[in-house]
Amino acid sequence: MSENEMSGSLAHWIRARIGAGAVENRADISTFVLYTVLTMTALVTAVFLALTTVLAEFELLPVSYATAIHLGSLKTLLIAASVTALLACLASMAIQEMLVTRAEHRRRKELDPLSGLLKRDAFLDFMHMTKVRGFLVLLDIDHFRIVNERYGRDAGDAVIAALAEDLRRTFRSPHIICRYGGEEFAVLFTGMDYDDCLLGIEEVRRSIGSRSIRVGTRAFSVTTSAGVADFREDRSPAVALKVADHALYLAKSLGRDRTVHESETEQLLAPSRRSDTVRRRKSGKNSRARAVKPSPAERHAGDALRPAQSSG
């Protein structure tokens, strides 16, 4: 077998071992290298002893059996140690390279390239695995579609990157942050009460709201809305997400630029439900005669993006 063929066979075996989960970290690398050295040394020694015994039976040894065993064992051990040390070195280098490659692949798979935060699937996996309870927050950029239409996609990307930066700076481990999709972010808070959670959310919302997002010579600022749900043992991740999304929807419906906890939804919805009932009764009487008018939210949607104050 040529040197290239041997290297190829070794690389194939190493990949198989890594693929099977035999190598995960530096400690596993050391164990793998030690296992390789001992296995190959034992194998070479066993082959030598068997061959020497056969030759001795047929009286083909040039020296006595004891002398052959003594000299041959020393030579075999020296050669085996040298060869296995070289192979172990090559194996270690190959394993480290493959571990780095796999870690980079995992990073690209789990992290969103624009925000640098976890992707949705990785976040959901963590939610299903964790036993820690706390609060789930869905945070959404208000009027993000208008940002893209008025200032361009680059402006939208700049807003997402800025909000991600504020989230990373404000919330560190053990809290988990992700870009949940588009202009929506999710944060799983653990180890804090709701008051501390709310303080953190409001700090982020104030920070992004006071930023001047610049695109060329133009500048603007944005607001955000948040919905909060309890993340507890008797509630699945899917239910928690649904509840948080409902709270976020209510925050948007009430004018945006605010945070709503799930416990506030019924209280906040009550006045609007009464208004809807009155509105439906009036609408039933003169729906044909009344001209359709845009809602306050629709009338002011175009004014939601505040031009940043010029410092010059």
State Rg: 33 Å
CATH superfamily of the largest domain: Reverse transcriptase/Diguanylate cyclase domain
- Poorly predicted runs: 284-302
The CATH class of the largest domain, by name, is Alpha Beta
Structural class: alpha+beta
Largest sheet: 5 strands, mixed
CATH structural architecture of the largest domain = 2-Layer Sandwich
- The strand count comes to 8
Please give the share of residues in helix: 55-70%
Question: How are the strands ordered across the major sheet?
Answer: 2-3-1-6-7
Could you spell the SSE succession in H and E letters? HHHHEHHEEHEEEHEHHE
Whole-number total of structural domains: 2
CATH topology of the largest domain: Alpha-Beta Plaits
Average the pLDDT over all residues and give the rounded result.
79
Beginning-to-end CA distance, first to last residue: 75 Å
Give the count of helical stretches. 10
**Anisotropy-based shape:** elongated
The percentage of residues in β strands lies in 5-15%
Walk me through the structure.
The structure is a single chain. The chain is of the alpha+beta class and 312 residues long. It folds into two domains: 3-110, no CATH class; 120-264 and 299-307, 2-Layer Sandwich (Alpha-Beta Plaits). It has ten helices and eight strands. It has helices at residues 3-19, 26-57, 65-110, 120-129, 144-151, 153-170, 194-210, 237-253, 265-286, 296-299, and strands at 134-141, 176-181, 184-190, 213-215, 218-221, 224-231, 259-261, 306-307. The protein has a five-stranded mixed β-sheet, with helices on both faces. A three-stranded antiparallel β-sheet has the order 4-5-8. α5 (144-151) packs across α6 (153-170) and α6 runs antiparallel to α7. The longest helix has 46 residues, at 65-110. The chain is elongated.
